[in-house]
Specification:
Radius of gyration: 25 Å
Oligomer: single chain
Structural class: mainly alpha
Shape: elongated
Distance between the termini: 62 Å
Number of helices: 5
Order of helices and strands: HHHHEEEH
Length: 146
């Protein structure tokens, strides 16, 4: 049986009349005229939208002379096209240097599926700078909290 929007209110109105959902208002079968409850206000984030403007931050990241891990991280964010939250847990076993591919395991992806990311030669060069570090590519330079 096909239930169309025309028949849905007639079908569900008796059930909604008894308020099985407590203090919920309305019967949920008719469209609301207000915005959905809990809808977040749009937030705007900084972004480079001019193609010619990308050079300055890339040069600044490549010219950074501070901590070696930070410098490599800045380059990897740019050249491996990863978010900082994806970069920090990156491990050496995920990276196949021969085929220039990073294989992200399913437990660390939003959709719980394995994900393969091609790596640019600049990203591989940045990885060479931090190769001696342990399991994690960008291991913390700070001592662990106890």
């Amino acid at each position: 049986m096909l239930i169309t929007p025309h028949f849905a209110p007639q079908l569900f109105a008796p059930a909604c009349r008894d308020r099985p959902l407590g203090n919920a208002r309305g019967n949920g079968t008719r469209p609301s005229r207000s915005s959905p409850p809990g809808r977040a206000e749009a937030r705007h984030h900084c972004a480079i939208i001019e193609p010619t403007a990308i050079g300055a931050p890339l040069r600044a990241g490549c010219d950074y002379q501070g901590n070696v891990l930070t410098a490599a991280g800045l380059k990897l964010v740019a050249f491996a096209v990863v978010r900082p939250g994806e970069l920090r847990p990156m491990q050496w076993r995920e990276i196949d240097v021969e085929s220039a591919v990073r294989s992200i395991p399913p437990e660390r992806t939003k959709m719980q599926r394995p994900h393969k990311v091609p790596m640019a030669r600049q990203a591989l060069a940045a990885l060479d700078e931090v190769r001696p570090s342990p399991d994690q590519v960008i291991a913390s330079s700070r001592p662990a909290l106890e």
